Amino acid sequence: MEDDLPSKYEVIVIGTGMTESIVAAAASRIGKRVLHLDRNDYYGGMWASFTFEALQKWLDECRNGKTSDSLKSSSPLVQDGEKSVNIGNQFSTVFNIEEKWFIPEKLPSIGNLQSAKNTQTEDSPKEIKDGQTESEEILKQNDKLWCQAKIKTLGRKFNLDLAPKLLFSRGTLVELLISSNISRYAEFRCVNRILTWQSDKLETVPCSRADVFATKNVGLIEKRQLMQLLTLCVEYKPEGDEFKGFEDKTLKEYLESKNLTENLMHYVLYAIAMSNDTTPCMVGVERTQRFLSSLGRYGNTPFLWPMYGTGELPQCFCRLCAVFGGVYHLKRAADSVIVADTECKAILSDGSRLDCDHLVLGVADAPPEFLGSVPKAGLSRGIFILDRSISISDKESLTLLQFPIKGKEPITIIEAGPSTHVCPPGLYLLHMTTKQIENAVQDLKPAVEALLHTEYADGITSRIDTDTQSTQTTKEGDSVASKGDSNTQYGLLKPQILYALYFNCPETSGYDLSQNVPSNVHLCSGPDLEVDYEFAVKQAKSIFSKMYPDSEFLPRAPDPEELSLEVDEAAGPPFQSSEEPKEE
Amino acid sequence: MATRKKVLLKVIILGDSSVGKTSLMNQYINKKFTNQYKATIGADFLTKEVMVDDRIVTLQIWDTAGQERFQSLGVAFYRGADCCVLVFDVASPGSFKSLDGWRDEFLIQASPSNPDHFPFVVLGNKADLENRTVSTKRAQQWCQNKNGLPYFETSAKEATNVDQAFITIARNALAQDTDVELYNDFPEQIKLSGSTENRSSGSDNCAC
C-alpha cells in the first residue's frame, strides 16, 4: 500500500462509534498522536445516521455478512514472539432484518392525470372546468400519497439513525460538549412533547410546573398531588425519611402508598420516572430527579435531539480530534491485531504495520477472542417512515414516548419531523427501541399495532383528509385523542406506515469487556438500551483514565480566535514523519 | 422575510492537501502568512464580520482540519454550507484535476436544494510561484463549463486577491441564502453554551 500514513502512534482507534470517538478526541486533545480508522465510508459504525440509499447499502452488507479477508498468519510484518489476531466482522452482528414497504412502487395514476390535465387546459379550458378541478383535487390529494419511487427520490433528505438517543439537558454529554467546547460543532432541537400511552390512547404528559397547571387531563386535586410528589423527589436527600421503608420496594408500591389516582401513577411511573412496574423505588426517585433537574434549561422537556440525527455526534468528537492533529482514514479496514505476551503491539491494515501504545476498538470490530462470552443479542430496533405524526398537533413536534409493556421493559419511541432534517417535508420518522426478548418484529408488535396503521396503502384511496384531522385534534388542547373521540375515529387518525425496518443488534453495556483483552486494548460497547448517552460518556471517561490516569479529560478547547494560527500547509501535511515531535 | 435572522454564513474550503487552504484563511482573517510548518493546533474555523452591500454578515470559514487528506471528511462537515470554496495549487496539475472530485463530493454530501446554482468559488492559489503548470485559461475554461463559476488567482503568501475572493464568496453565499425561512414554524435550533441558557422561543409552556 503506497500511502504516507505514518507507522507509529500512541493511540490507534478502530471504528468511529460514539465511545471510540470521544476517547479519540480526549487523547488527541492532550497531545497524543492518534490514528482513527474506520472500514466504512461513513462515520459512526452502529451509531451512524443514513440517507435512504446508504441504509439500503448497509442492509445489503449486513445480509451478506461481508467477511473480512482472512489474513495469512505468516505475514512478514508479524515478528517472533508475536501473534496476529483477526479483527471481527461488524456486519455479522446485525440480524433478524425485516424490511417492508406499505406503499406501491409507483403511483399508477399520477402520470395519466398530469397529461390529462395538460391537454384539458390547452384545448378547452372552459368546457371541462368541472373535470379540471376534480383532477386537480386528485393531484392535490396525491401530494399526500406516497410511493416507493418518491421516497427514494427524496432519499438524501433522510437521516435514519441506527441508534437514536436523546440528551438530558443537564446530562453528562451536554455538560461535556459545553466544557470541552465541542458544542460549537453541533446544533440541537428541544424535544417538545412527552407522550404516554394510557387506556389505549395517547396523552401529553405535563412535565413542568406550568404544564401541570395548564393541563386539562388532571383535576385540581391531582395537580396538587403531582406537584407535591415531584417536589418530594426533587428535594430528596438520603438522610430524609420520606422513602424510608421503600428501599426494597418498587416505585409503583411507593406511588400506591401516596394514594395517587391511576392517571397520575401512570404519568409519574412511565413518563417522568421512565420506569415500569418492577423498577426499584430508589432507582425511580433518582430517575425522577434526573428528569426534573434537566427541565427548563433549554425547553419544556428535559431532552435535546441533535439536528440531522444522532450520527452527527461522533463526528463532532472526531473533528476535535482532527483539529488537534488526529489522523483520519475512512474506508480503511484494520485486518488484525498483533499481540505479544499480554500486550498489543500493533495492527495490520492494508499490508502496513501500524504500531501503537494503546488500541481502542468497538465491540463490533473486536476479534472474537477478545469478546469471550459477550452476548450476541440485546436490542430490538424498528425504524418507520410515516405519513404523519402519531399525534398531530398544530406545530411540528419532536416526541418521546415510553410505551409501557406489562412486566417488561418499555418500548422507547422517538418521533422526529422534517425540521430536524431527518426526513423530507410531509413525513415523520419514528424510532422504536427495546430490549430484545424474541426478535424485533415480535418485541415491537404491541406498540406498532397500537400506534400505527399497518394496512397496505394502494396509493389510490386516501384514507382520511389530513387537514380536517389536524383541526379536530388541536382544538382539544393537551388531549391528543380527546375523550369524546370514538374509537373508530381514533383508529383513522393513526399514521400510515410507508416503510418499516426491523433488526436486532447486540447490547453489551452490562458486560465487563476488559476480561479477555490485552492490558492496553480497550473495548467500547455499542449503543446501549438507555435513551441517553450517560453510558457512552462514562465508558469513554473510564477508558481514557485507564490510559492516561493523570491527564484531564477533554479540557476546554480554545476558541479559534484565541489561537494564533501558524500552520502553513505549503510545507507539507501534518505528520510528515512519525518521529516529528508534536507540540501543543 | 423582511428581517432575516440568519446573518451567519457557513463557508467551507475544499481542495487537496497543501494547496494552501489554511494559509488563505489565515491570510484573510489574521493577515498573516508563514512558510514554516509548525505542528501546532490545527485550523478549525474562523469567523469574520464583513459588509456586503450595506449588510453586515458574519462569515464562518471552516477548514478541513486535515480530514481531507485521506478523503475522510464526514457529512457533518458539509451541513448547512452557504458557499463552497474550491482551491487548487496552480503549480500542481493533480490538485486542479481533483476539483471535479471535490465539487461532486460536496454536491453529494451537502445535497443543496439547487445544485446547479449553488455558489462555488474557485481559487487558483500560489499564483506567486514561477513554476506554475495550470494556465489561467485552462482554469477559466473549467469554471466556464460549470455554469460560470467565479475564478480568482490568489497568493496567500503575498496577499494577492485574497480579500477580493472572500468578498465574492460572502456576496454569493448571501445571495443563495434562501433556505433559511423554510422551517420557521419550529422553535429555533439550540446551540449549547454554559453561560447563556436559551430557551425555545416558540414554546407556550414555560418551565418552572
Automatic annotation (TrEMBL), chain A:
It holds the Pfam family GDI. Residues 123-134 have a biased composition (Basic and acidic residues). GO terms for molecular function: GDP-dissociation inhibitor activity; GTPase activator activity. Residues 560-569 have a biased composition (Acidic residues). GO terms for cellular component: cytosol; nucleus; Rab-protein geranylgeranyltransferase complex. Residues 113-122 have a biased composition (Polar residues). InterPro entries: FAD/NAD-bd_sf, GDP_dissociation_inhibitor, Rab_escort. It comes from the Eukaryota. PANTHER family: CHM, RAB ESCORT PROTEIN 1, RAB GDP-DISSOCIATION INHIBITOR. Belongs to the Rab GDI family. This is Rab proteins geranylgeranyltransferase component A. It comes from Cinara cedri.
Automatic annotation (TrEMBL), chain B:
SUPFAM superfamilies: P-loop containing nucleoside triphosphate hydrolases. The keyword Oxidoreductase does not apply. Keywords: GTP-binding, Hydrolase, Lipoprotein, Nucleotide-binding, Prenylation. Gene3D superfamilies: P-loop containing nucleotide triphosphate hydrolases. It is found in: Late endosome membrane. InterPro entries: P-loop_NTPase, Small_GTP-bd, Small_GTPase. SMART domains: RAB (SM00175), RAN (SM00176), RAS (SM00173), RHO (SM00174). Its main location: membrane. GO terms for biological process: endosome to lysosome transport; phagosome-lysosome fusion. One of its GO terms (cellular component) is phagocytic vesicle. One of its GO terms (molecular function) is GTP binding. Pfam families: Ras. The keyword GTP-binding applies. Belongs to the small GTPase superfamily. Rab family. This is Small GTP-binding protein domain,P-loop containing nucleoside triphosphate hydrolase,Small GTPase. The lineage of its organism: Eukaryota, Metazoa, Ecdysozoa, Arthropoda, Hexapoda.
